[in-house]
Design a protein that fits this description.
Blueprint lengths: L15 E5 L7 H20 L4 H27 L1 E5 L2 E6 L5 E6 L5 E5 L2 H6 L1 E7 L9 E6 L1 H13 L16
Antiparallel strand pairs: 1-2, 2-3, 3-4, 5-6, 6-7
Helix pairs in contact: 1-2
């Protein structure tokens, strides 16, 4: 059986803490590039002498731009970041599915970066390091709710298991 959903990779002994998709700001550059390309194609179509060849070429170029943007949006939609009580996982890819994973017990350093634009729009970059090794999952960009995710991850890795401040983590049982 082929596992298409990231939840299919979670073991029965694990508890999912959160599951998020990359922040929508990741798509802004691609949307702007596509809009600019379509505008350029429309201008070419309007200002070049009308002929069957030019009309056909601009139409197919517009189709290619639209298909490219559709694939990029689908790739963003499919990409998931999952944090369980034992590991961090990231699932990417439409045709070639890739799941990167890092056990929480191997994490030695957690760095959180957020630019001014990231603070304004609500995304950040998380750098996860482990014992001097470059893992398959060491840099997660455009992470939504970065403050909460950083706090939840820090508590899972370095904190007391019974003390949680983050609303992403379940409250401890008493």
């Amino acid at each position: 059986m082929i596992a298409l959903d990231i939840d299919d990779y979670i073991l029965p002994t694990e508890r999912r803490i959160l599951r998020v998709r990359g922040h929508w700001a990741l798509l802004v550059k691609d949307i702007l590039e596509s809009a600019l390309a379509i505008a350029l194609l429309m201008a070419l179509d309007a200002y070049l002498p009308s002929s069957q060849v030019i009309d056909t070429l601009t139409w197919y170029a517009g189709l290619v731009v639209t298909l490219r943007l559709t694939i990029l949006v689908l790739d963003w939609w499919i990409e998931r970041i999952v944090i369980t009580d034992k590991r961090v996982m990231m699932s990417t890819g439409i045709i070639t599915h890739r799941v990167a994973m890092m056990p929480l017990r191997k994490v030695t350093d957690l760095t959180f970066q957020q630019t001014v634009i990231g603070r304004t729009l609500g995304y950040g970059t998380m750098v996860v390091e482990s014992a001097g090794q470059i893992q398959g999952l060491n840099r997660i960009e455009y992470m939504p709710q970065p403050d909460e995710i950083y706090e939840a991850l820090t508590e899972m890795i370095f904190g007391e298991k019974k003390q949680t401040r983050s609303h992403l983590l379940p409250k401890p049982r008493r």
